[in-house]
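Q: How do we represent a protein-ligand complex in a form that can be generated token by token?
A: Start from the inputs.
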Amino acid sequence: MAAVPLIAVRDLEKTYAMDGPPVHALCGVTLAIQRGEFVAVVGPSGSGKSTLMHILGCLDRPTSGTYHLDARDVSRLSDDDLSAIRNRQIGFVFQGFNLLARTSALENVELPLLYAHRNRIAPAERRVRALRALGAVGLADRASHFPNQLSGGQQQRVAIARALLNDPAILLADEPTGNLDSRTSIEIMEIFQRLNAQRGITIVLITHEPQVAAYASRIIQIIDGRLVTDLANASHRAAAAELAGGGHG
Amino acid sequence: MLRTSVRLAIRALGRNALRTILTMLGMIIGVAAVMTMVALGNGAQDTVEQDVRSAGTNLIHVNAGNYTRGGEESRIATGLGAATTLTPADAEAIGRTVAGIKRIAPGVRLRGWIASGSHRFYGQVLGTDVPFASMFGWHFDEGRWFTAADVAARRPIVVVGRTTRDQIFGSGAKAVSRTVTIHGQSFTVGGVTDTADPDQIEMAFVPYTALQDALGIAYLHTITIEAVLAGDASRIAAETAALLRSRHAAHINAAVEKLRRAGITGNQMPQFGAGAAGAPDDFTVKTQSSEALTKGLYTSVAAFVLANMPKLDEVNLAEMNATLQRARSTMTALLAGVAVISLVVGGVGIMNIMLVAVKERTREIGVRRAVGARRRDVLVQFLTEALTLSAVGGAIGIALGFVSAFGLTLLLDWPTRTSAAGVGLAFGISAAIGIFFGFYPARRASRLDPIDALRTE
Ligand SMILES: Nc1ncnc2c1ncn2[C@@H]1O[C@H](COP(=O)(O)OP(=O)(O)O)[C@@H](O)[C@H]1O
Ligand SMILES: [Mg+2]
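Then emit the structure tokens for the protein with adenosine-5'-diphosphate bound:
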């Protein structure tokens, strides 16, 4: 394996101290993910998967422990620096798609470029890039559609196009198929596998469904905020083949 | 980025047009009230200026000659033989040298018959220059005022007052293009002035060059000067006197010498000016108000009064201002009250709608933060929305302000004048309100925790 992992967390703890007793969402997670890996994080509901993803995605900070992203200690960065990292290095895909309502697919996809402050891009160029990203997820012909005019699968593909726009190193997906039927889920997994294989994008896929995790080449299991297993999954499912031969799901 | 923000803002506000318009209402009324207030203020100020103009407090009169004791009433220039020393070149020099002069008109006077056919009228003829009509804000019942070309070409054109017209041609008769005889010379009537001044209404006005020709003289009897600021009249008068003193020095000294040799002394000596050698002047310079005040006084008494009231012009102007201010302060106070209340209501409305927007769009804020928006990007976005809201409200308010100012003039006959400064002020206030009342909601939006925001349903 390569010397410097893309993601390296050590003794990660996250404690929520609201009213009532403190909740230990993460209790000492240590983990390294190399560039180009496709990792699934599985575990029952409430086990701390989303908490982990928020920290990996620089949306949240751990209570203790360290996080090095691309050898850079993220825990000491300012809010603005974290925003810049999310903008350039990380793409998010959520269970609920999180597209802006009454905003066209194209404009939804363009969104990250609006915040690319260190690398200003002209509106015309933004358009071109957004269209290309929509093309990559097979939705070039739906650019001017609003989210409510798209199916769930299509909305999720728009969200993936948005996540891809700044050519991030990492794609973080939290239950991306949670709201989709199984056939559509396979379509989304096909896109993930293609992005991982062709572009070398590192993917962290969070799911509570083992059959979805089976598309990843490494599966990490979390229970009660603790990492319990971390296994290679050499014989992972191949979404493209399933779609080609499988007929209707 | 800003263009995108404004576009986004307009779209966001357009999504709930009715709510947006209702929110703007306070803003619209407030800005309209500000606009109207400024327009009323401008109108009042114009009225003051107009009053000052018609009262003549901004006018300075230079007259050729000086008067010995008793000469004032008889209006006979005596001593010095100086009545011939004031020239168009002096007028030109004053206009060029003394600061704060708006207009200047050389003049030649004649008291005599103005005749047409069998009708004739004994009145005052003033030979003057083009700026004279503007000094008094004249309009013309018929015809027109003479032009610079008429003056330069020394054309015999005459503009008459209404009484003069009535006396010569018959009451209300057409006068333009008819001919009158003045001092044996034919003049064509060019126009009839609408002046209501009791002196001017029974006068006739001709190019001073034409009257010089008719009289066979090359000098002037008078120069009329209009100050830019009425309060400046005393200074301009003083500087004009100093300038003429130096221009006429040689003449004056020679004349004084002649008088001395003839044995004229003391009271018989012309009024002493402030010239270097204490020599008398061969001219007088008076502001309109000093002239009014000292009318009929002995020269020495008049000199005493004037010396003790150097700020006479300023006093008059200040009093006039105060009177008008009192007359309009009630209306201004009322409008200011309406403006302040509406603007506060409008501002709170904007704050409210923005807080609602932040709440409704919490998830959107989370998404934007997730894709890399910094806190300040979110702040700017919502601030831009608030600003757009208030600016649109302000623009509508400005339009309404024009309408209400116009309406006040039309229905109540109150003088108003809308101005670029008024529009600027109104727009500035709306922008300031947008920023002030939009800041809290925008800051709240920018402080949201991205994860909480994303989790919001
Ligand atoms: N903001 C929060 N405040 C308090 N407790 C939280 C918060 N977020 C998550 N938790 C708790 O932390 C634990 C882990 O949650 P989460 O990471 O969302 O689990 P998963 O995504 O695996 O379902 C749960 O017990 C949850 O109730
Ligand atoms: Mg979760």
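Residues 68-82, 271-277 of chain B have pLDDT under 50 and may be disordered. Chain B touches chain A through 21 residues (CB under 8 Å).
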